[in-house]
Amino acid sequence: MAQNISPEIERLIKLLSKLPGLGPRSARRAALELIKKREPLMRPLVTAMSDAADKIEECGVCGNIDAANPCHICAAPGRDQSVICVVQDVGDLWAMERAATFKGVYHVLGGTLSAIDGIRPEDLRIAGLIGRVKGGGISEVILAMNATVDGQTTAHYITDHIEGPNQAGERVTISRLAHGVPVGGELDYLDDGTINAALSSRRPF
Amino acid sequence: MAAGHYISHLRLTDFRNYAALDIDFSGAPVVLHGENGAGKTNLLEAVSLLSPGRGLRRARLEALTRQEGESRAPAWGVNASLMTQDDMIKLAIGQVPEAPRRRVIRIDDKTVSGTALSAYVTLFWLTPAQDRLFTGPASDRRKFLDRFTLMQAPDHGANVLSYEKLRAERNRLLGENISDRGWYEALEWDMARYGAKIASARTKTLYALSDEIDRRPETVFPKSRLALEGEIEDLVQSGLSEEEVSERFAQLLADNRSLDIRAGRTLRGVHRADLLVSHVPKSMSAASCSTGEQKALLIGLMLAQAHAQSDKHPFLLLDEVAAHLDSGRRAALTEELIDLGTQVFLTGTDAALFEAFDGRADMFEVRGGTIT
Ligand SMILES: [Zn+2]
User: Fold this and answer.
1) Which residue of A has its CA nearest to B19?
2) A17: which of A88, A178, A194, B144 is 20 to 30 A away, CA to CA?
3) Domains of chain A (ranges, CATH numbers)
4) Is the CB of B108 less than 8 angstroms away from the CB of A153?
């Protein structure tokens, strides 16, 4: 940014460009839009961001983000505390909640094992998960990682560490989401990997 | 440490002989010592991959994944935290298992093209493979100059690639004895256009580097006199504009077509250029100097280029360089590197080779995929 832009604006653009999906060009547009809509958009955004920065924290149990800790899902009396659904990120937890079928609780890993991003087991919330499972009271763990190689490597790693009896000598069921034909999906439009996964996890009719 | 632009942390995952490595740097020169085969050069290679290109070994992507017995890791990764004046930038390079043949580069978690790295990292290296630079084939010296050129003209690399693609295409026509004039003219016109850009960028680099060498004081690293030998480069040096050079080059290719058909390849062009280096104090061509003197010349060239590019805070990777120098030159190199103030990575078998740093370097012992 070599032009004569004031340092205040330049700093705003630089920070905005760090957001996912925003390059330098779209960050400039976003900054301009914010400044143009100072009262209706920028100031409320400042308040919202400051509120979120002050109040939102990670749930000490599951890694969800919430203004309460433990989060409102972990604390909800109606949810089945014996079933844990393991997801990569909070975005995946939100997707599960939108579907509104799952009545258990979650564990958010914070990513997957990944060579290029240099993410190792100790960088994820895996130790906490092992602690929860081994501590007892858990009947089932559902591994809901993405169907990528890194997602599945992470699932294998977790399985290796949680299978077998817990401290109370109870067995824990480990399951994973079925991979296959999406609802409304037409076979002709699916890639080979999806078709193979659907075929190998077929069920009696 | 004064350097405001340095790698503060490096993490390797399934890279070469490193399963998982974390290493912190202060910004001071980095010394890696240990036995041959311990993995010192692998570490330099990891750093070299943070600049555009295939790194200091020019290795294939698949060759970089760690292998244990028969099994290969699914992917490798190199992560670096780069401290700049006012920011910390995360650089990541490696593979994703779904596409192991594609080099993936991320800056601050965003996937970018390889050339984007040049905005953050400028680096060059001196390795034992370059010991025969002055006596070996012209193509090595051309690549050496092209790497320098890339630092001031980031599109130089793309221009060279485009030129080479067109040349291969023209060679195919020549080899198959095709005589479609329009086809040749189209290829030659594009070749000439890229060729003129290449020759002009090389010439500018040569001038800038020569100026820097003239400006530098006399040291134990002898001054080089540089000349660029190549008929297209000559046209640039005679003062013609890039457009005129391009026209002349296109004409030259057209005139030479029948000779080229007989040879089955393109005989003239920027792919034949050579960098001629001579030892100023001895007024001798570099190729005729002793091995030790050649190494000293190369170091002098590197230092001049580092100074010429100092606004880009270039990193220097010096693989097994100290062993070739007597203690006087080692001490002089140490002071030069500290004075340069950019991050420098040095390897050597023996920690004693680096005594002159005397507490002013980050010292690490490398042993079988671990570092202490
Ligand atoms: Zn929670």
Assistant:
1) A115
2) A88
3) 7-55 (1.10.8.420), 65-204 (3.40.1360.10)
4) no
Q: Which residue has the tokens 């912190």?
A: B24
Read off the DSSP letter of residue A181.
P
Give the nearest partner residue to B14 out of A115, A117, A149, using CB atoms.
Answer: A115
User: Which residues of A fall within a CB distance of 8 Å from B9?
Assistant: none
Burial B140-158 (b: 16+ CB within 10 A, else e): bbbebbbbbbbbbbbebbe
d(CA A127, CA A42): 40
**CB–CB of B106 and A116 under 8 A?**
yes
Q: Are B365 and B33 in contact (CB under 8 A)?
A: yes
| Cβ neighbours of A123 in B, within 8 Å | none
The tokens of B201 are what? 């960028």
Q: What DSSP letter does each residue of B268-334 carry, written as one string? A: SSGGG-EEEEEETTTTEEGGGS-HHHHHHHHHHHHHHHHHHTGGG--EEEESS-GGGS-HHHHHHHH
Instruction: Tell me the torsion sign for CA atoms B285, B286, B287, B292.
Output: positive
Task: List pLDDT tens digits, range B70-91.
Answer: 888 889 999 999 999 888 999 9
Between CA B235 and CA B247 the distance in angstroms is 11
Q: Which residues of B touch A115 (CB under 8 A)?
A: 13-14, 73-77, 94-95, 97
H-state helical runs in chain A: 7-16, 24-36, 43-55, 72-75, 90-99, 126-134, 149-162, 192-200
- pLDDT, tens digit (0-9, with 9 covering 90-100), for A14-73: 999 989 889 889 999 999 999 999 999 999 999 999 999 999 999 999 999 999 999 999
| Each residue's pLDDT tens digit, B239-269 | 999 999 999 999 999 999 999 999 999 999 9
**Strands of A173-176's sheet in order across:** A104-108, A80-87, A140-143, A173-176
Average pLDDT, chain B: 93
CB A140 within 8 A of CB A177: no
CA A181, distance to chain mean position in Å, is 23
The pLDDT score that the predictor gives to residue B273 is 96
Which two tokens mark A42?
């920028």
- Assigned token pair, A43: 């100031």
As given in the structure block, the two tokens for residue B141 are 């010296």
Q: Which residues of chain A have pLDDT under 70?
A: 1-3
Q: Do A149 and B74 touch (CB under 8 A)?
A: yes
Round to whole Å and give the CA distance between A3 and A20. 25
What is the pLDDT, as a whole number, of residue A178? 85
What is the 3-state composition of chain B as percent helix, strand, coil, each rounded to the nearest 5? Answer: 45, 20, 30
The ipTM estimated for the assembled molecules is 0.81
Residue A85 DSSP class: E
